[in-house]
Backbone:
């Protein structure tokens, strides 16, 4: 009952015209960048972080959440019509959905993706509503040792599970941790690794790194290595799903949600695993295995419905560790964390106590956002497709201009712009040799947190390192970390490969 | 996927680069000024750990590079194997545009510098109409300038520098 009362309060605040407007803008922007190739939710939220100086936290966070959500919705449109996944987590949709589109069934594919996203998003938000307060209550008992163990677990999962090679994931993480070291040490006050450059004393902003890697790096990489493909766009067809489409989609949506939410809510890094898992589940369970891409079929609707639902559910699920523990499990979540920190809000168990109204308004806005997105995406899908007509030069030039504004606007420093360019070239190198990018962002953000918790834990234990193993919760997290290191080997052995979610 | 045997120089360079970063971290941590008072865990311990971690990763990367190359390199064998014909020129244009905006923004102001960046990037991505691109760039950046200054309170350098 307590939860219901809080949620009702959240709704009354989320439904005020101003917050509705922020939610709507967020959903609109999110869908647009989801549709557009080359720009993702992490980059967009990073570029919009300056508004935290002006807009009140509730409005800004509602908008950012809308962008995060909307990008998942919009990404499926591009995948189905163009076979170029707008977001990498919609790769499966690109596979199966594009096949359907090629066979004249673009409409039902788009419909099942959008309605599935709505169903999954709503169910996942209900689960978030129920579980987040419980997790927060549990997390209140965590001390520094437990936090340190959770952070180690998050590091490991984000870098080990993503990408083809665990070693390269760890290399990215190491680089991220290194970047996180730069600047004033909060405990001792020593300036570390500033190389005498005054601009580095404050540390390097996460926005700067994100924009360098995602905007500049991506633009340069696509220029250097990506052939312009003459991918024919598929025509839209009627969105109506037949009775059999519905019958095949509904169970796939539900299964996708059940797979997606837990994977999103554990620090397992992004929406890749659940989408692939859901896809292979649907393939096994389907009564029409011949229609799947692997059997050179015409595209099976379950193969779109399940993964799209899983994708959305895991995006919602990833808000659980973010809100209750302050731990981001994807690059976008990491930037959202930075947004909270701009308001001097530290996500974590205390957030539910100290800023309860904000949290519940945010949760309520997720329910509303799902409805907005369904309306925005289904009837208006033709409008979004028009966005794809923006010529490639202008689209990319526009992204770069916005990137520069975002970075320069932070503290009016030309040095930051040069650093952004350098990081961009570093990003090209990383992309070229298949180093995942998300661990860099997560590492630079969580590294300083981990160091602080480590020091606190050791202060409490008076320098006794065994504290991490003797405290049951912390020991359990470390054991889980070991498990995470082993699981990818097992997955690889079974021929499952995972890719990065940006 | 077949792995070519032998040493892959570019990848070895990356491995060695990671080792170099680790060495810099360790050396830097060694030279931190001494801390005052009772310290449980000094400012240098965690950086040392990161350095050790990076060093190990760098060694393994280098090992892979001299024994046939990084493992499980995804899909660079197909369409993205080499630099596309106009790729280098395009990347050079974009780099020049970004360098330009970094060096010029404090002198010619935000609107002009960003419009220049827009034109350079568009050129890099294959547009061949510099004047039109500049105009579009201005049409894009002027409203942004106004929006940021008036709406968000993020002040960007003015159209032309104040003293001109």
Residues:
């Amino acid at each position: 009952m307590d939860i219901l009362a809080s949620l009702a309060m959240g709704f009354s605040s989320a439904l005020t015209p101003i917050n509705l407007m922020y939610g709507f803008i967020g959903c609109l922007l999110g869908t647009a960048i989801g549709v557009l190739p080359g720009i993702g939710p992490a980059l967009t939220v990073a570029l919009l972080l300056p508004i935290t100086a002006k807009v009140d936290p509730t409005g800004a966070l509602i908008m950012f959440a809308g962008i995060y959500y909307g990008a998942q919705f919009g990404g499926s449109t591009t995948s189905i019509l163009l076979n170029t996944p707008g977001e990498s987590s919609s790769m499966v949709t690109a596979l199966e959905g594009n096949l359907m589109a090629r066979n004249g069934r673009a409409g039902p594919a788009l419909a099942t993706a959008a309605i599935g996203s709505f169903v999954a998003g709503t169910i996942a938000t209900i689960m978030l509503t129920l579980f987040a307060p419980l997790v927060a209550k549990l997390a209140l008992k965590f001390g520094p040792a437990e936090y340190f163990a959770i952070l180690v677990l998050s590091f490991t999962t984000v870098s080990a599970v993503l990408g083809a090679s665990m070693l390269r994931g760890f290399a990215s993480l190491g680089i991220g941790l290194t970047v996180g070291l730069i600047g004033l040490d909060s405990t001792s006050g020593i300036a570390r690794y500033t190389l005498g450059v005054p601009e580095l004393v404050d540390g390097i902003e996460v926005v700067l790194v994100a924009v360098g890697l995602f905007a500049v790096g991506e633009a340069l990489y696509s220029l250097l290595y990506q052939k312009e493909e003459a991918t024919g766009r598929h025509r839209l067809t009627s969105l109506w799903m037949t009775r059999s489409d519905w019958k095949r989609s509904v169970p796939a949506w539900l299964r996708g949600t059940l797979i997606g939410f837990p994977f999103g809510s554990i620090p397992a890094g992004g929406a890749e695993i659940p989408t692939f898992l859901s896809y292979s589940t649907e393939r096994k369970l389907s009564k029409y295995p011949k229609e799947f891409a692997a059997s050179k079929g015409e595209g099976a609707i379950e193969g779109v419905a399940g993964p799209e639902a899983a994708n959305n559910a895991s995006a919602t699920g990833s808000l659980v560790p973010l809100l209750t523990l302050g731990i981001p499990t994807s690059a976008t979540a990491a930037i959202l964390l930075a947004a909270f920190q701009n308001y001097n809000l530290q996500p974590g168990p205390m957030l539910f106590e100290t800023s309860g109204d904000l949290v519940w308004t945010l949760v309520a806005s997720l329910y509303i956002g799902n409805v907005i997105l369904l309306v925005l995406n289904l009837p208006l899908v033709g409008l979004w497709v028009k966005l794809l007509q923006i010529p490639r030069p202008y689209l990319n030039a526009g992204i770069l201009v916005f990137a520069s504004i975002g970075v320069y606007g932070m503290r009016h420093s030309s040095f930051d712009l040069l650093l952004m360019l350098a990081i961009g070239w570093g990003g090209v190198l990383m992309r070229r040799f298949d180093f995942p990018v998300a661990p860099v962002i997560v590492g630079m953000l969580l590294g300083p947190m981990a160091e602080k918790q480590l020091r606190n834990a050791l202060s409490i234990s008076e320098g006794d390192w065994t504290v991490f193993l003797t405290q049951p919760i912390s020991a359990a997290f470390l054991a889980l970390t070991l498990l995470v290191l082993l699981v990818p080997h097992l997955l690889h052995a079974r021929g499952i490969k995972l890719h990065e979610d940006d | 996927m077949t792995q070519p045997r032998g040493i892959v120089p570019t990848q070895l360079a990356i491995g060695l680069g990671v080792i170099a970063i680790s060495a810099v971290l360790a050396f830097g941590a060694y030279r931190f000024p001494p801390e005052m008072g009772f310290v449980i865990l000094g400012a240098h311990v965690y950086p040392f750990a990161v350095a050790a971690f990076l060093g190990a990763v760098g060694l393994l990367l280098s090992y892979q590079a001299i024994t046939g190359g990084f493992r499980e390199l995804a899909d660079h064998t197909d369409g993205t194997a080499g630099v596309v014909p106009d790729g280098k020129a395009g990347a050079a244009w974009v780099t020049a545009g970004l360098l330009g905006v970094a060096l010029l923004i404090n002198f010619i102001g935000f609107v002009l510098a960003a419009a220049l960046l827009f034109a350079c990037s568009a050129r890099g991505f294959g547009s061949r109409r510099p004047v039109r691109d500049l105009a579009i760039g201005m049409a894009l950046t002027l409203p942004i300038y106004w929006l940021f200054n008036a709406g968000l309170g993020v002040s960007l350098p003015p159209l032309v520098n104040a003293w001109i």
Remarks:
- The two ends of chain A are 37 Å apart (CA to CA).
- The mean pLDDT of chain A is 84.
